[in-house]
Amino acid sequence: MADEVTIRIVRSFSEIDPAKWARLSGASRSGPSYNPFSSHAFLSSLEESGSAVAETGWLGHHLLLEDDGELIGAIPCYLKSHSQGEYVFDHSWADAFQRAGGKYYPKLQACTPFTPATGPRLLVREGEEIGRVSSLLAQGLRQVTAELGLSSAHVTFIPQGELSSLTESGFLHRMDQQFHFLNKGYADHEAFLAELSSSKRKNLRKERRNALENGITIDWLTGKDLTEEIWDQFFAFYMDTGSRKWGRPYLTRDFYSLIGERMADDVLLVMARRNGRYIAGAINFIGSDALYGRHWGCIEDHAYLHFEVCYHQAIDFALAKGLARVEAGAQGEHKLARGYQPVVTHSAHFIAHAGLRRAVGDYLEHERREVEQMGDYLDEHTPFRKGERQARDGEEFDV
After folding, report:
1. Which terminal residue of the chain has fewer beta carbons within 10 Å of its beta carbon, N or C?
2. Rounded distance between C-alpha atoms, residue 134 and residue 289, angstroms
3. What is the rounded CA–CA span in Å between residue 137 and residue 132?
4. What is the phi-psi region of residue 98: left when phi exceeds 0, alpha when psi lies from -120 to 50, beta otherwise?
5. Residue 388 has pLDDT above 60, yes or no
6. How far lies 85's CA from each of 120, 251, 395, in Å?
């Protein structure tokens, strides 16, 4: 590291001044590029609720870059004893290394736990030289990896603009695919539908009608609407679906209370009501220019309700609030038919062992080609009329 700055590691966000953290890129609600998952409120809630803690395999190891004691950059980091809750899968790397006699875990993971959404990872204080501080942060990750004798460091769901600092520091580039709704300034949902082929437009209108059969209505809840009673109901949805999907849901009930106290205006619950009670819901987080869909749950099964609550209503909200896009989470090619378009996501990986690094590097080279080819294929199968498809690569998709 350069002489004038130092890297300091802290185990918990309770050791970090929220006001100083808010001066970092993307972490301030008043900033133009606010990402709720980079906020002190969100990250500290994960820890204080017992969701992302050592007992669940997420030992806080947050890197703070300081100049004469002043925070000028940071990376939310964790020592991981497994690869769960990351959504960028390296299980095969771990298995191969361990079969060869290596020790893959613990590893250093830079991310927002349980959150497959692109956002700043190399956080830089407002007014600092971004390239310089980002480079120092990338070097700091390598330094910590070496000093702790770790197998690897992983920085996942990064903006494309952060790639160069990491690759120049020896990180390997990985690509994947998500599906985002991109707002071209549509006046409303009908204006968006007008750009789809006639058959797709007809299908989506029918799907939305069918989803709300049986007397189902939809509520948007945010801010003061998010009472403890509402959180109890939503948590029941989360536990029902999460237990079936993952075996053990990642988030605790306390997490929802904490974000309700600290960032209620950044949260949107889309709740479906029938016969006087809520039967399903989806949680979303609101950034300065994007709506981020996270997870949903239900206690009654109704055809198409998942698509309505998670995807169509998210588009409605984004259009009503003038947001540039909806990021609907990981995977899910079914989103394509609902007007979400393929977008490339990025991560960066430093592998300390030379042999494993060569093997992973070869694998990623092939994987990147496959992701690009799949993206080209999917882009040709969006529901948009010919000539209305939007580019899927480029900085406009970065957070």
Report:
1. N
2. 23
3. 9
4. alpha
5. no
6. 18, 10, 26
Encoded tokens for 51:
């969701």
Place of tokens 């490339």: 344
Residue 393 above 80 pLDDT?
no
Which three-class secondary structure state does DSSP give residue 282?
strand
Phi, then psi, of 155 in degrees rounded to 5: -125, 110
Position 171 confidence tier, pLDDT thresholds 50, 70, 90: very high
List of residues 6+ apart from 250 with CB closer than 8 A: 51, 56, 84, 85, 113, 114, 242
**How far is residue 238's CA from residue 271's CA, in Å, rounded to a whole number?**
12
Residue showing tokens 């949680």? 283
User: In one letter, which amino acid is 85?
Assistant: G
Exposed / middle / buried, residue 96 (Cβ in 10 Å: 0-12, 13-18, 19+)? middle
Residue 195 CB coordination number (10 Å): 18
For 39, 144, 323, the CA distances from 330, given in Å and listed in that order, are 21, 29, 20
Strands 70-75 and 62-67: antiparallel
Dump pLDDT digits (tens) for 246-274. 557 899 999 999 999 999 999 999 999 99
Which residue(s) pair with 219 in the sheet?
A: 271
**Residue 56: C-alpha distances to residues 7, 98, 248, 366 (Å):** 26, 21, 11, 33
Residue listed under structure tokens 């050791």:
15
Alpha helices in 100-197 (DSSP H): 130-147, 163-167, 189-193
As a whole number of angstroms, the distance between CA 364 and CA 351 comes to 12
E-state strands within 223-337: 267-274, 277-286, 290-298, 325-330
Q: What is the pTM of this model?
A: 0.93
Q: Which residue's entry shows tokens 């806080």?
A: 60
| Percent of all residues in the chain with a pLDDT value above 70, rounded to a whole number | 94
106 upstream amide cis, omega within 30 of 0: yes
